[in-house]
Amino acid sequence: MGTVHVAAALIVAEGAVLAARRRKPAYDGRFVGRWELPGGKVEEGESPEDACRRELREELKVDLAELWPLETVDFDYDDFHLTMDVFVGRLAEGVEPQNIEHQELRWVRRDELTDLAWLPADVTLMHQLQDRWPEMMAAAEPAS
């Protein structure tokens, strides 16, 4: 079983996180229409943080004001192992994501997190995020 290494961003703004609905097939055509955090594969020689920033520029046409590591998620699909480095990010003031690659982008509040059909690797993360929501939102507030 091979390993796929990705980096994803939990983009936080005004008490919500950005969710992206897949337009393209992932993992051999599965999971079209499922929700995920924006991000993508880490290229050889690239750090997970650099990969995350690159993917966000490609997918959403945004640069983040801040980005810091949250955790690493390991998940076994039937035919490969996924390692996902998850970062928390905040958009620069006045920046809005553009939908370049997804069916839909949606800002999701705490009570909506587990209502979406997430990719399997993201489901546990969303439940944990509900539990950690106050500390996540407090950490994402801009310094005054």
From TrEMBL:
* Keywords of this entry: DNA damage, DNA repair, DNA replication, Hydrolase, Magnesium, Metal-binding, Mutator protein
Q: Which cofactor does it need?
A: Mg(2+)
Enumerate the catalysed reactions. 8-oxo-dGTP + H2O = 8-oxo-dGMP + diphosphate + H(+)
Q: What GO molecular functions are on record for this protein?
A: hydrolase activity
Look up the domain of life of the source. Bacteria
Q: What class of enzyme is it?
A: hydrolase
- Membrane spanning stretches: none
Q: What is its EC number?
A: 3.6.1.55
What InterPro entries is this protein classified in? MutT-like (IPR047127), Nudix_hydrolase (IPR020476), NUDIX_hydrolase-like_dom_sf (IPR015797), NUDIX_hydrolase_dom (IPR000086)
Name of the protein this chain belongs to: 8-oxo-dGTP diphosphatase
